[in-house]
């Protein structure tokens, strides 16, 4: 019998993000086995997982199609996030 308000989602359903990466607030897992993620802004399905979603949001050309609907605030946030991650990798 389902709980009032509907059944709880399965703990490993494809709609649950596989990590605590902040980019998961901006994308939806479509197929984790094939690393496909859908952008919540333009609904484009991207291959390559969460890293490609971040490139898409930041509008890095060449690797993935840039998102035309992401806000400047989100774009700047992930640009800074990716720079900080790159700096921490170099320093470690």
TrEMBL record:
Residues 1-18 have a biased composition (Low complexity). One of its GO terms (molecular function) is DNA binding. Transmembrane segments: none annotated. Residues 18-74 form the BED-type domain. The keyword Zinc applies. InterPro entries: Znf_BED (IPR003656). PROSITE patterns: ZF_BED. Residues 1-22 are annotated as: Disordered. Keywords: Metal-binding, Zinc, Zinc-finger. This is BED-type domain-containing protein. It comes from Colocasia esculenta (Wild taro). The lineage of its organism: Eukaryota, Viridiplantae, Streptophyta, Embryophyta, Tracheophyta.
């Amino acid at each position: 019998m389902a709980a009032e308000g509907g059944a709880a989602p399965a703990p490993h359903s494809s709609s649950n993000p596989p990590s605590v990466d902040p980019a998961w607030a901006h994308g939806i897992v479509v197929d984790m086995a094939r690393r496909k993620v859908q952008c919540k802004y333009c609904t484009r399905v991207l291959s390559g997982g969460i890293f490609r979603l971040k490139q898409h949001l930041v509008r890095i050309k060449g690797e993935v199609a840039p998102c035309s609907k992401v806000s400047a605030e989100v774009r700047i946030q992930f640009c800074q996030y990716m720079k900080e991650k790159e700096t921490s990798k170099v320093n470690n």
